[in-house]
Amino acid sequence: MRTAILLLAAVSSLSGATCFLTVAGLGGEAEYEQRFAGWAQEMDRTLRASAGVARMETLHGPSATRARLASALEELARQCTSSDALAVTLIGHGTFDGVDYKFNLHGPDVTAAELARWLDRVPAARQLVVNTTSASGGSLQVLSRENRIVVTATKSGTEKNATIFARYWAEALRDPSADTDKNEAISALEAFRYAQQKTAQFYKSQKRLATEHALLEDTDGGAGSQTPSPEDGRGRLAAAFTLVRFGAAQAAAADPAKQKLFMKKEDLEQQIDRLKYQKAALPEAEYRKQLTALLLELAKTQAAMDP
Amino acid sequence: MKALSGLTERKPAVLLPLSRGSIRARQRGQTPLGHVNLRALLVCAWLGLCASLSPAQTLDKCRDLQGTGQARQADACYQQLLSSADPYVRAEAAWALEQYQAANESFRSACERAPKNALCRARWGRFYLDRRQWQDAGKLFAEALEIQPDHPEALLGLALVSARGYERKAVELAGKAIASDPKLVDARVLLSRLALEDGNESKAAEEARKALEVDSKALDAMAMLAAIDWLNDDHNTPWAERILKINPMYGEAFATAGHFLVLNRRYEEGVRFYRRAIELNPRLHKARVELGINLMRLGLDDEAREHLELSYSNGERYAEVVNPLRLLDSYRNFETFTGPATVLRLHRREADFLRPYFESELTRAIRTFEKKYGMRLERPVRLEVYPDHEDFAVRALGMPGLGALGVAFGNVVAMDSPSGRKPGSFHWASTLWHELSHVFVLTATGHRVPRWFTEGMAVYEETEVSPDWGDRITPDVIEAVREKKLLPVAQLDRGFVRPEYPAQVVVSYFQAGQLCGYIAEKWGYRKLLDMMHAFGKRKSTPEVIVQELALAPEELDKAFFAWLDGKLSKTVQGFGDWKNGIRKIAASAKAGQHSEVIEQGRQIRDLYPDYVEDGSVYEFLAESYLALGDKARAREQLAAYARIGGRHPEVIKRLAGLLEEAGQKAEAARALEKLNYVYPQDEDLQRRLGTLWLEQGNAEGAVRAFHSVLALKPLDRAAAHFNLASAYRAARKNEQALEQVILALEAAPGYRPAQRLLLELSQ
User: Fold this and answer.
1) Which residues of B153-177 are buried (b: 16+ CB within 10 A; e: fewer)?
2) What is the pTM of this model?
3) What's the rounded mean pLDDT across residues B164-169?
4) Cα–Cα distance for residue pair B339/B344, rounded to 1 Å
5) What secondary structure, in 3-state letters, does B21-67 show?
6) Which of B419, B715, B759 sits opposite A180 (nearest CB)?
7) Half-sphere exposure of B121 (CA within 13 A, CB side)
8) Is B236 helix (H, G, I), strand (E, B) or coil?
9) Which residue(s) pair with A53 in the sheet?
10) Subunit contact A178:B754, Cβ cutoff 8 A
11) ipTM score of the complex?
12) Nearest Cβ partner for B718 among A180, A197, A296
């Protein structure tokens, strides 16, 4: 399963690039203003240094207005193609009155419904919206649609305290340890799990009651999950949505001289995946023997592919 | 017990056993409602107990039967009063028969019928005290005092509420009760009890004797005199015989002694007395509860559960019973590891991680103390580590809300887990050594040692392990020294048991630790051991000081205070300037005026060098030096912070980062390793430490650190297994290395560094 997802990511990444828009909204207080802008700028720096970024825009401070957000998405609607991916990240405060979610900006706020309409105009077939604000869970249903991954920092609109999820989302993009499958790329699912775990650890270590519980939704109309897993049908899109790449894996896949080795590598990876699914049914020693043999063969194949 | 700086610890809640038998000579024959019930009279006549008694007089008769150990007759007597028309009489009878719901309803009815009757409210309050509903009891006593401001029973009730929290005003309130009614025996007994809790035996005996002057058969007063004798190992006390002659079922006397033995940390003896108490009277449920709690303290969980469950089923359903029972249930989530000299109980979710740290530190501490104290423990030390602080508090006291970090009950130690506290706020290893010192001192003295000495030794031993361990001087301590609030050594125990101001417990810990340090410095460490053994021979503090130091206690006080003044005078005198200075520094730092921060910081830092809490001068200086690009000086400030005892993980990690940048990798690793004693459950810490140790060629250190990363269940399991494989490879343990690298690749088959290591290991 993992291999299949990796291949999907490889194919999609070859066929298009990603357009990024990051918005740090109104802080209200100097401390929050600084904190939100800092996280947005950190993400901006990381993403600009990564391969495969088609367009990158970051709004913070006084420029983070409803009008600027609307025009930025309008511009993306003109520039992005259907083969591109779109990733929008919202950082700051949000409110939910039981009906409407609003993202707090300098000047008038923007509702989740307005944002959804603007996003629908962007032709990028694969979309990711990461709403890290307080009460962001209130936006999940409105933003969800087919082929759009929605991440919210809170599980509902009633978790109203300021959040820290964005801090760890930004950190996930630059921390190689977020790349848990070691494919030299960080997917939306890996970033979600990283930020979610770090957020939970933050509250635990500070002996504070956790006031935010992040959700991921990518099944078109689902309720969102705190534990998405592609194996049970949740998080498949997110696993295939690459945010940051930092290796030469994609280049190797595209090199015709190494196609044979690449195919062998794919085959071995699929055999390993199949073996892992049979683990419970095999005697431990037998499983270990077969796994070691396959891993050794894969390592040799990879060594042959490496420059 | 190791207290948390700034918080006052609370002691076990133990009240006077409710003395239903001595309710009152002076109000005999009266009820708050003051009328006679015909049916009760008939019953009384039928019982043949009285010819023409009022219900209230019958109530007295029932109490007399109860007070002389005629339990069945007393029950029959009370049973008949349940149908009295007087709700107060019904309430008292139902209470005596343990029909608590009925008693409460009857008290309510009685007090509603007599809204201006203070006694009714006072007795209802006593009923609530018996049911451990302290707040409701306090309200009823206050209502009684609104009706009659000098009502002796109500004043006594409030004194009992205060006594539960070891508040000083308990003495004052009991005194007022006696002033209002000089014949109030229970108030005298309370004064006796409070005095003995303070370690003042002569005052305790004096008050008990005064009570006996009022009522020569006052069993509670005799129990106090017996308890004093038993505390002094006089097992032939005449009071026991006298008590049992009057009431052969009077187990309360043994429960009273049990309370004082436990208070003096003589847990096993306390348990023996509680056992005797319930042997004499199986219906002494409060004593059974205390027996259960103290059996838990000794690690005898199964028997503790039996007694607590029996108490619960007999109507004792308050927090002191329910909390320990819940905790006992939760032990299924704990794992126990037994070694030759240790038994370690850890919560399942952190057992894999903590076990190596706690086992090695526990063993190291035992070996060190065996050598220092020249003795071997006959029984294994049992250490219990609680990730939930409230579980620890329940373990220690039966109730949540304890400000302490660790507690020793003989050879059983319970303490917070590092995960139970905010990172940087708790040095678990220091606490462990502190409690282990208690285990040795208590064992060496047969638990006959004053509080100040065992705490002083424990505090002293912490900093003997490493100067940056233990607690730093807090602002509370500086204020106490400046205002000359330190107690004379002969009264120092009072500072622990019944503090006169909120910070006095913490100040007393500091004073006791410093005093032991002073003695060690002036007379040598051996002298502390001599004193310890002298205490074990039942010598008092003044006697030990005279015998071992050849000084009068007052002379020791004088010399010690002079020594302490010399040591702290700069901080005490400069504290005001330091406080003003730190405010200016904070303002300058906020404004980004780094040169000013540096100038002001240099001026005040050493006025109060021990201040390493949040917002320390060291941190301000380091920040400003870094802002100005002077990493070397920033490093110096943070190194000084760590040396003094600063232990905030982020600050220490920052220091390690600067040391690494400067190429001082061994120093960086040593700085990070200190955090293992503070907050080891930090994945980033363990990963950095493992990497540094690997670079330094310390393969074993790297294996331990990377093992810790894995035990923390990291998101990036592939990297964690790979790092551990690399460490095993460096340690030339190729089999383990291969196992780990396979696990890394199982999680991430395409992980290049792991693939390379696999190829290398397979050659």
Assistant:
1) bbbbbbbbbbbbebeeebbebbebb
2) 0.82
3) 83
4) 8
5) HHCCCCCCCCCCCCCCCHHHHHHHHHHCCCCCCCHHHHHHHHHHHHH
6) B715
7) 24
8) coil
9) A18
10) no
11) 0.77
12) A180
